[in-house]
Write the structure tokens for this entry.
Amino acid sequence: MAEFVRSDTRGPVAVITISRPERRNALNLQVKQEIVEHLQAAQRDPDIAAIVLTGDGAYFVAGTDIAEMETMTPTDHVRLATDRVFHEIRQSSKPLVAAVEGYALGGGCELALACDIIVAAEDAMFGQPEIRVGIMPGAGGTQRLLRTAGRYKTLLWSLTGDMIPASTALASNMVSELVAKGSARARRGDRDPDLRHAAAGRAGDPRGGPPGRRRAAGECTGARAAPVRERLFDTQDQKEGMRAFLEKRKPVYRGR
């Protein structure tokens, strides 16, 4: 039984919710695997036409679990298939909508970017802060931002690690639509109107088209950054960046 991820069916829409509140829904290997399992179940269900991916506790995903990543080697990333969840989302034959409230940072931002549509609360915050812990986005955070926001915004955000307010993300074509604060959340007892509307309404009625249209419209360059990112796990700066984060101090990078 899944510990951190659950799935609820609302008519033709599957709502997959990440719930790891003590870590602001940070992605570790277990969370990623549970997302994959729920995605695969939704894919197999002929009654499911669209999928919404969201987070509990007023957060989408605050990042990848650095405590787990800190000791990983490049070989570990390949052996453990740490980017599998992103491939599963991109290869989905059913439309996926990210319903984002609170933070979508690092791997959480890339998780949203892997979806077909991003509906965000007006006060949501996005960002690719990997450079601050000695690595870089490796699961689509560079390619997908480049194709939406353009070269100059992508480099600005990737090189500074700055937060991206939802309004800026919308203006930069990174977000599909903004909704009022609180309405993107999977609220207990009031989930249907907002999330099903986000999935079926914003994506268009997915039952009206052929099942394979998502794959046909898929993008081919999402995996290019992964090998580069994995090599960064063999650098001293990666170790220093993540160690400093965990020790709550400023990192001292030496360019090696």
